[in-house]
Amino acid sequence: MTAPTAESAAQSQADLLSVDADFLWHPWSPSRVSAETTVVVAGDGCEVQDVDGRRFLDAKSSGLNATLGYGCRPVIDAISAQLRQLMTYDMGEGSNVPAIRLAERIAGLTGPHLTRTFFCNSGSEALETGIRIARFYQAVLGFPERTVVVSLDNAYHGSTMAAAACSATSSPVADDVAPSGFVTVRRPGRAGAESIEGPEGIEDLREFLSANGTRTAAVLVEPVQGRGGYVMPDACLREIREMCDQQGILLILDEVMTGFGRTGRMFAYEHAGVQPDILATSKGLSAGYMSLAAVTTTTRVFDVFDRNKDKAGFVHGHTHSGHAAACAAGLAVIDFIETQGVLSNVRARGEQLLDALEPVRSMPGVRDLRGRGLLVAVELDRARRAARVKDHMRGSGILVRRTGRSIVLAPPLIITASQTDRIAQALVAAASAAASEAP
Ligand SMILES: Cc1ncc(COP(=O)(O)O)c(C=O)c1O
Q1: Which of 339, 367, 401 is the last residue of a domain?
Q2: Are strands 216-221 and 148-152 parallel, antiparallel or unpaired?
Q3: Are residues 227 and 187 in the same domain?
Q4: Which listed site, 44, 259, 269, 302, has its alpha carbon 20 to 30 Å from 197?
Q5: What is the pLDDT at residue 61?
């Protein structure tokens, strides 16, 4: 792990947090910093180090984006080489080599149907782009009334206008500031049937589409919901695909969190054997080394725009679309996943983690254990108990994510067997300690 710089070492975590509290507006809340906030200065493999020199095993991969861990040399070298040669070149007027190569490489993984990639900078932008593509697509085809985008409850699709309108929120004013045309229906498995076999649980979506299919542009689904780690049953995903096909509705899959290996396949849709019309990816594409997201569509969707250029085309883009150094990172990440056995590691470590966590299932205060690949959740009976589990984990030197009453584990995909054991043992101990505390 690289030693902290002289400037960072000279300041304590407490000093930095007091400056942070005065000047930084953190995502999600204006008042999020606490004495427990970790100011990270260095990382190596699956570990990070804070300003005061404490080391933590990062079982949440930063924001689930550090999929190849910290200090991954091939990715760093690819970015530096690209930066030295050409940091980027505008994709509106021109093109650049890493963007061309990365789009081709993604098509090699998602083809033969998903062939056309639009680059942007974040998961939210990818969903925003996907939603606009779906609405433009329907309008260009002569169905301007098809504007509704249906998402599932408990979803998270991002923070831009449309992406946020498709996401569950705890803000009481969220509906007041949301754009129109976004509908949320119940997600499968909510009644406790978290089976990943049966198609039960999509009645609400079916009902909505049978009444409103002709005004619906797209259905938007996360194959595994990051919030709480709910796995979309494979049979449900297949049913949703069929419903969309029957009614001319586009299926957008949000693989911002699951894409590029998180579930043990390159894309989570592979488990169900169905493909979307629009695929959004981001976190695992650049593994946290650069800001990059991709929206990959079918040839059919792209051709509708291409054939109808006279109808204004797709008026959408970003200055940093296809940033050359970010795309160079993406190429190096895919190389690493393919050559270093990352997907088989995810499958082995994911199974190991679920097996080793099995004892928590029967503990008082624990409601469920579920997951796919290296996206695993332990659901407690209350958010407060989950918060205590998270604190116990931090005390054991392991950082985890909490969403509501669930602890979500999503370590880097390169995690070792012994690190996996360490996470599981600490979580069993933390859940056991939290079980004996008052709810
Ligand atoms: C499934 C999913 N979609 C979209 C987003 C938004 O991505 P970003 O934070 O890069 O805007 C996230 C972020 O956590 C996510 O998990």
Answers
A1: 339
A2: parallel
A3: yes
A4: 259
A5: 98
Ligand 1 shell residues, CB under 6 Å: 122-124, 127, 156-159, 222, 226, 254, 256-257, 282
Give distance in angstroms: CA of 11 to centre of ligand 1.
32
For a pLDDT cut of 90, what percent of the chain falls above it?
A: 82
d(Cα 386, Cα 14) in Å, to the nearest integer?
25
What is the pLDDT at residue 194? 46
Q: Are 358 and 369 in contact (CB under 8 A)?
A: yes
85-135 confidence digits (pLDDT tens): 999 999 998 999 999 999 999 999 998 999 999 999 999 999 999 999 999
**Ligand 1 binding pocket mutation candidate from 152, 256, 292, 318 (most atoms within 8 A of CB):** 256
Judgement on whether residues 301 and 378 belong to the same structural domain of the protein: no
> Is the predicted pLDDT of residue 6 greater than 70, yes or no?
no
**How many whole angstroms from 32 Cα to the centroid of ligand 1?**
19
CA–CA dist 89, 97 (Å, integer): 9
Contact 240, 251 (CB under 8 A): yes
* Ligand 1 atom at minimal distance to the Cα of residue 64: 14
Q: Report if residue 48 sits inside a domain.
A: yes
Residue 37: pLDDT band (50, 70, 90) is: confident
Closest residue to atom 4 of ligand 1, CA basis: 157
Which amino acid, 357? L
Whether 1 maps to a domain, the answer reads no
CATH number, residue 289: 3.40.640.10
Dihedral of CA atoms 270, 273, 275, 280 in degrees, nearest 10, equals -20
Residue of the nearest CA to atom 8 in ligand 1? 123
Among the candidates 339, 359, 390, a domain finishes at 339
Distance 183 CA to ligand 1 centre (A): 19
Tell me if residue 110 falls in helix, strand or coil: helix
